[in-house]
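Dear H.,

Thanks for agreeing to be a second pair of eyes. The structure we're designing against is below in token form, covering all 73 positions.
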């Protein structure tokens, strides 16, 4: 399921929200735990941080879609 397909279907959008929230939590845990990389290894840290930020942005976009759906209904 992609975000464009889910945009007009509240149940799909909710599933996508749960997935994005789960993934955001996963990457935040990895960042907080330091996992198995030294923070000076910027490539590994940047990769994890980038994934965390991407899921944060996805959740913000889902919020916007939900608000737009509420206005049109």
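And this is the sequence the design step returned. I haven't edited it by hand at all.
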């Amino acid at each position: 399921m992609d975000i464009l397909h889910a945009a007009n279907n509240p149940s799909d959008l909710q599933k996508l929200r749960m997935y994005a929230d789960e993934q955001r939590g996963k990457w935040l845990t990895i960042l907080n735990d330091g996992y198995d990389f030294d923070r000076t290894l910027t490539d590994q840290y940047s990769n994890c941080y980038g994934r965390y930020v991407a899921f944060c942005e996805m959740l913000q976009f889902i919020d916007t879609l939900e608000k737009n759906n509420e206005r049109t209904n």
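Two observations from my side: The chain has a mean pLDDT of 83. The CA atoms of residues 12 and 45 lie 32 Å apart.

Warmly,
E.
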